[in-house]
Amino acid sequence: MTVTIYHNPACGTSRNTLAIIRAAGFQPTVVEYLATPLSRAELTGLLASTGRPVRELLRRKDTPFEALGLDDPALDDAALVDHVVRHPILMNRPIVATPLGVDLCRPSEAVARLLPSESLPETFTKEDGETVRFAEYSR
Predict the structure, then answer these.
(1) H or E element, residue 42
(2) What DSSP line would sit under 67-106, residue for residue?
(3) Full pLDDT tens readout for the chain, 139 residues
(4) Active site (annotated) includes residue 11
(5) What is the set of domains in the chain, with CATH numbers?
(6) Does the predicted model carry a pTM greater than 0.90?
(7) Which of 3, 5, 8, 11 is catalytic?
């Protein structure tokens, strides 16, 4: 099974998600989208594949979100995507793509919906010491 994670190594949630994927036995393709930004077409396709509104996939904290006025409801998806193309930090992370779906994995244990349940470890301990029990996330 192919797994791709759109990853920011400076983000604890992204690091935990990547660790969960690896603990489930997968060696994902890791796309560090800040170092190698996605094209407009790639970004549009990725965001659309989540089935979520573009606005829901924007990161507000520690980004130029407010300075750019992106809370303006008059901005349509195309305008929002244009801003993310220019400022990749605006894309919330991590987004994970597998044959089971594509989604924003916040919190990190949300990745369980995108992996075969039989591959998940019984428990996983996050960087902050929190233990996740995957039986709670079975499909």
Answers:
(1) helix 40-49
(2) TTTTT-TT--HHHHHHHHHH-GGGB-S-EEEETTEEEE-S
(3) 999 999 999 999 999 999 999 999 999 999 999 999 999 999 999 999 999 999 999 999 999 999 999 999 999 999 999 999 999 999 999 999 999 999 999 999 999 999 999 999 999 999 999 999 998 765 5
(4) yes
(5) 1-33+93-139 (3.40.30.10), 41-91 (3.40.30.10)
(6) yes
(7) 11
